[in-house]
Amino acid sequence: ERGHGSEVNIICTQPRRLAAIGVAQRVADERCDPGLGGTVGYQIRLENKTSDRTRLTFLTTGILLRRLQGDPNLDGVTHILVDEVHERNVDTDFLLSILKSLLPRRPDLKLLLMSATMDAAVFCDYFCTRTIVKIPGFVHPVQDFFLEDVVSTLDFNLRAPADQRDMALGKLEKKLDYDLLAELVTFIHNNNTDNDGSILVFMSGAGEIGR
User: Fold this and answer.
1) Most buried in the list 131, 145, 177, 207, measured by CB within 10 Å?
2) Structure pTM?
3) What is the DSSP annotation of 55-108?
């Protein structure tokens, strides 16, 4: 509204490489940008899709920590968004500690912590602020089905004797069975022909998604 949009330089951290790439692509699409590396870009290990025109960069927490090593004041950066801040790990906690010490040196720097599930009071106490922005959302009804339910419903072959069923289920909990996953997706698709929608499958990493 003030006409200073071209002066901003926003950094948004993501806990994982796939998240940084995916969110950057989604934002670029919604802005109708011709592609990544324009106004919106991302930076992950061994890959940099930014340019001099980039004003919103999605990157992993580790990349920002490395940048802070060479640029401790983050000169030129106007806003830092730390997404999924509730996913506590060494990198995130270390980053929050550094940013807390940086803010007194950069009073013009805007810091925003984002999460759908975090305890806001804990972070407010840590950063000595009471500024909280809440965006209401809709909670969709969810019905839980456990691994035992899926195996029973699909009559999936565990490839183990009956007396070793529990052991076979334990192995499935530790290692993804792609045959089971394929049968489950097919079952859901075939039994929901009257409903519009999509099937969302969460995988543990890029290697599993590639398979």
Assistant:
1) 177
2) 0.75
3) -EEEEEHHHHHHHHHH-TT-TT--EEEE-STTS--HHHHHHHHHHHHHTTT-TT
